[in-house]
Write a structure and sequence with these properties.
Blueprint: H1 12-22, H2 35-46, H3 48-61, H4 65-92, H5 99-107, H6 112-150, H7 169-173, H8 180-185, H9 198-205, H10 207-212, H11 218-221, H12 229-256, H13 262-266, H14 276-289, H15 293-326, H16 333-336, H17 346-360, H18 367-393, H19 411-428, H20 445-462
Helix pairs in contact: 2-12, 2-15, 4-12, 4-18, 4-19, 5-6, 5-18, 6-15, 6-17, 6-18, 6-20, 14-15, 15-17, 18-19, 18-20
GO cellular component, one term: membrane
Membrane topology: Multi-pass membrane protein
Subcellular location: Membrane
């Protein structure tokens, strides 16, 4: 057959739909997201305002300014290695399932069901825990704002300084500022935790950075709704990490230049009840204007940012729920992958909201429960990130076919760096956080993550190995 007039090239949407069919799925979700929209979802889930604000106390207590300002880039460099490896795999397999689908395709036919099961459940439980921890953190911040509004400043808070909404304004308005030497070199060893090894203290302080720099798999989970997904999904992952590194460092610097008295900021007897970053905001404005209303306004800005972070997190994990149930991996799967007239997996959204709520409830009466949930959200998600990368650099090393985005000959090297970093932080973040170790000071990370692994493995051995075959096509439906 010859063409007198060559046919027009396929549109981007047709190419995306065709690639999705090659991967085994028909287009059910509305493909409307641009590269900016895809990036925005991951950037909002990472949300430096959420992560840094929530765990600033941890950074101050374990190492202080030096750990936060310098450790941020240490964690960030290795996080970028993880992100680059994920972006390369995402480009080859742009599906909403993301990590668990990648594991199935990269581990080979024999191991695909087991690899997919382990990766998928680590990913989805970590995402639910992440949403729960974000929204619970919002509740904590609102509680502190109410405390400052009613108990701080002699009860006379006004809102006339609402124009001061930029977080970078904190060191500008603070009458006493830390020196650059203090911000970049002061290492706080007075953590009242009985830890005397400086390396151990520094490692624990990195948790703030690593907790913040997570959630960028959201770009992968949104690829079935993203135009030119093989290109724009990877861009969303990499740019979200890179821009978060720059913006986050600026936020940390802005706050830390207003830090002078670490023990007072961590004391439960201060105006903010020991919520260090809230106390910094409050004092920065109070010292210049006689009241802390401007600081409270800034805290409300942060609270709104945390709200949007939780909303984006919900969007991401509902798509993961939709994809995982589409492949039959969840109880009552046929319910959770239904799509409404607006092409939204609404049942998956409500299920994700309900499970995240249930996971947050124990934290109302137990700080230990919240710490365990945060541990799952941080460590388990990185284990899920590492598994498909591990399969890519081992089992699929010689047969991996990259998509539009490729690391070329450096793909294996970067992949191994990513895997080794995840293995390292999994061990380091399981170390004791206080001595002597008691039931009240125990680091529950290995308990929470180990318990999750036991449940996932047990469910595989007892039941799933008999019926779960990994990702299945829905083209015939």
């Amino acid at each position: 057959m010859t063409w007198n007039n060559p046919p027009p090239p396929p549109s981007d949407d047709d190419a995306d739909d065709g690639r999705l069919r090659e991967l085994g799925y028909k287009q059910e979700l509305r493909r409307h997201l641009s590269v900016l929209s895809n990036f925005s979802i991951s950037f909002t889930v990472i949300s430096v305002l959420t992560g840094v604000t929530t765990l600033y106390n941890t950074g101050l207590a374990f190492g202080g300014p030096a750990t936060m300002t310098l450790g941020w880039f240490l964690a960030g460099a290795f996080t970028m290695a993880v992100g680059l490896s994920m972006a390369e795999i995402c480009s080859a397999f742009p599906t909403s399932g993301g990590l668990y689908y990648w594991s199935a395709r990269l581990s080979g036919h024999r191991w695909a069901p087991f690899a997919s099961w382990i990766t998928g459940w680590f990913n989805i439980v970590a995402q639910w825990a992440g949403t729960a921890s974000i929204d619970f953190s919002l509740a904590q911040l609102i509680q502190v704002i109410i405390l400052l509004s009613t108990g701080g400043n002699n009860g006379g808070v006004t809102w006339r300084q609402s124009v001061f909404i930029l977080m970078i304004a904190v060191p500008v308005f603070a009458t006493e500022r830390a020196s650059a030497k203090y911000v970049f070199t002061h290492f706080n060893t007075d953590n009242s935790a009985g830890i005397h090894n400086n390396l151990h203290i520094f490692v624990l302080g990195l948790l703030m950075s690593q907790y913040t720099l997570s959630g960028y798999d959201a770009s992968a989970h949104m690829t079935e709704e993203t135009k030119n997904a093989g290109r724009n999904g990877p861009i969303g992952i990499i740019s979200a990490i890179g821009i978060s590194l720059v913006v986050g460092w600026g936020y940390i610097l802005g706050i830390t230049f207003a830090v002078k008295d670490i023990p007072f900021l961590l004391s439960p007897d201060n105006d903010a009840g020991g919520y260090a970053i809230a106390q910094v905001f409050y004092l920065a404005f109070k010292s210049r204007y006689g009241n802390g209303a401007g600081g409270i306004v800034c805290l409300w800005i942060v609270a709104v940012a945390i709200y949007f972070c939780g909303m984006s997190s919900m969007t991401s994990n509902s798509r993961m729920t939709y994809a995982f149930s589409r492949d039959g991996a969840m109880p009552f799967s046929s319910i959770w992958h239904k799509v409404n007239k607006q092409e939204v997996p609404i049942n998956a959204v409500w299920l994700s909201a309900f499970i995240s709520l249930c996971m947050a409830l124990p934290s109302l009466g137990s700080l230990v429960a919240f710490q365990a949930m945060a541990s799952v959200a941080t460590t388990a998600i990185y284990i899920a990130y590492a598994l498909p990368i591990l399969f890519r650099v081992t089992l699929a090393r010689n047969r991996f076919v990259p998509g539009p985005f490729s690391l070329g000959r450096y793909g294996v090297l970067v992949g191994w760096i990513a895997v080794l970093w995840v293995a390292t932080i999994t061990v380091l973040f399981s170390l004791p956080v206080s001595y002597p170790v008691t039931k009240n000071t125990l680091n529950y990370t290995p308990v929470a993550v180990g318990g999750l692994f036991t449940l996932i493995l047990s469910s595989w051995i007892v039941s799933a190995r008999r019926w779960f075959t990994g990702p299945v096509t829905n083209l015939g439906g």
